[in-house]
Amino acid sequence: MIKFFYNGAPNPLKIALFLEEAGMSYEAIPVDTKRGDQHSDSFRAINPNSKVPAIVDGDTAIFDSNAILLYLAEKADQFLTSEPEKNRGQLLSWLMFVASGIGPYSGQAVHFRHFAPGENEYARERYAHEARRHWQIIEDRLKLSPYMLGEDYSIVDMSVWGWASRIPFMMGEDAMADYPSIARLMTEINARPAAARAMALPDRHSFKQAFDEDAIRNLYPHIHAIRQSQ
């Protein structure tokens, strides 16, 4: 059985969505990042980068959410593309675009909008701009077809879904109005029973909610160090 190390953040939830969509058996193992579970020796042996998600499949450990999606999709032979000779390159391109662009810029936009100490208008505007630019590329793609790969619902859509729910948090409450095609995709995926099960998964475990100094130290050690030096 696959061991799935997760919390309720965007990247773990897209893995939960795949596992539920594919009907794969898995054991959900909570990693409470506010309590610092990700820094334990046992978890770092699975993911040296101390991030969720990660999975262990037999003797194989896989980390980075899009690597996990690709691994699981190939293992299950599901949610790839019905025309591999035509669309394999597009699948890889868009999957890596989400991994190298959407995720990092969205995460930094959230960080500098909500969590970074002090005033850094340049950083806030830079990452907000790049997040908007990257999401507009996704929006433009979805204007052309129901899904990122045309008619096929795939792991690329699941990867987009993981982060798209955070658009209002990263760019403002009304930001989704600028992305009607993304909103359409989100509405469709959210209505799927597998998505409901994936979103309910964190309710099975008791994750720390308080964003106190211990949580800051575990999530953002550089911020904690700055505060301790002041």
Structural account:
This is Glutathione S-transferase family protein. Pfam families: GST_C_2, GST_N. It comes from Hoeflea alexandrii. This protein is α+β, with helices and mostly antiparallel strands and about 230 residues long. It has helices at about 10-20, 40-45, 65-75, 85-115, 120-140, 155-165, 165-170, 180-190, 195-200, 215-220, 220-230, and strands at about 1-5, 25-30, 55, 60-65. A hairpin with a 2-residue loop joins strand 3 (about 55) and strand 4 (about 60-65). Strands 2-1-3-4 form a four-stranded mixed β-sheet, covered by helices on one side. It folds into two domains: about 1-80 and about 195-230, Glutaredoxin, CATH 3.40.30; about 85-190, Up-down Bundle (Glutathione S-transferase Yfyf (Class Pi), Chain A, domain 2), CATH 1.20.1050.10. The radius of gyration is 18 Å and the shape is globular. It is built from eleven helices and four strands.
What secondary-structure arrangement, pairings included, does this model have?
Elements: E1 2-6, H1 10-22, E2 26-30, H2 41-44, E3 54-57, E4 60-63, H3 65-76, H4 84-115, H5 121-142, H6 155-164, H7 167-171, H8 180-190, H9 193-200, H10 213-219, H11 221-229
Sheet bearing the most strands, described? 4 strands, mixed
The CATH topology annotation of the largest domain reads as Glutaredoxin
Q: What is the share of helical residues?
A: 55-70%
Determine the structural class based on helices, strands and strand pairing: alpha+beta
Share of β-strand residues: 5-15%
Number of strands: 4
- Low-pLDDT stretches are none
Number of helices: 11
**What does the overall shape look like?**
globular
* N-to-C order of helices and strands: EHEHEEHHHHHHHHH
Annotated CATH homologous superfamily of the largest domain? Glutaredoxin
Q: Name the strands of the widest sheet in spatial order.
A: 2-1-3-4
Counting structural domains, the number is 2
Q: What is the CATH top level name of the largest domain? A: Alpha Beta
Q: What is the arithmetic mean of pLDDT?
A: 94
Taking all Cα atoms into account, the compactness measure Rg is: 18 Å
Our measurement of the CA-to-CA distance between the termini, rounded to an integer number of angstroms, reads 48 Å
CATH architectural designation of the largest domain: 3-Layer(aba) Sandwich
